[in-house]
Design brief:
There is one protein chain. It contains 3 helices and 8 strands, in the order H-H-E-E-E-E-H-E-E-E-E. It is α+β, with helices and mostly antiparallel strands. It has an 8-stranded antiparallel sheet, covered by helices on one side. The longest helix has 29 residues. About 11% of the residues have low confidence.
Length: 172
């Protein structure tokens, strides 16, 4: 009887040890350990883009990989947390936007708010600011939804989305 209990105990310990090692192996596999892994993840998110730059940086004491890409007149910037490969920031902007007819009347804040809420449904609009950038009237919309903070920039005359960004605002 003692031999049987001892055998069961030893088997249980071995199974437990194997489970712990397996868990660590899975956790290790999710880590983003190289700039090449970050590049591959970014190209998965923005297929057929041209990689401009990949670099590592430390933000709030946490290693991140920043990937800059170009595709169809847009510049993309993605930021991955190295410890688990999570996408923490995503943004794009049109590099040479058409200003449209700047003699037109500005769209209303309400019209821009409607566009922004269509882009990010169920978000809370924090602010809408009318700005001038390079001779173009633009609206900058700041929003919040869940653990993400959004910034969207619209052409104030045409309502075209010129820039889009979200970032996770939880603690690293």
């Amino acid at each position: 009887m003692k031999k049987s209990v001892t055998s069961i105990l030893i088997c249980s310990i071995l199974i437990l040890a194997f489970s712990v090692v397996s868990c660590f192996s899975v956790a290790e596999a999710k880590k983003m350990q190289t700039a090449q892994q970050a590049q591959k993840a970014a190209l998965k998110k923005v297929p057929s883009a041209k990689v401009i730059e990949v670099e590592s940086d430390t933000e709030d004491g946490v290693l991140v990989y920043e990937v800059e890409l170009y595709k169809s007149g847009k510049e993309y910037k993605l930021e991955y947390r190295a410890s688990d490969g999570k996408l923490m920031k995503y943004e794009w902007e049109i590099l040479n936007p058409s200003s449209g007819n700047q003699n037109k009347k500005n769209l209303s804040k309400q019209a821009i708010k409607k566009k922004a809420l269509k882009q990010v449904s169920n978000a809370t609009v924090l602010s809408i600011a009318l700005e001038h950038d390079d001779g173009m009237v633009q609206y900058e919309v700041k929003m919040h939804k869940g653990n993400k903070k959004y910034e969207l920039v619209y052409n104030g005359k045409t309502g075209k989305l010129l820039e889009y960004q979200w970032k996770i605002v939880t603690v690293y």
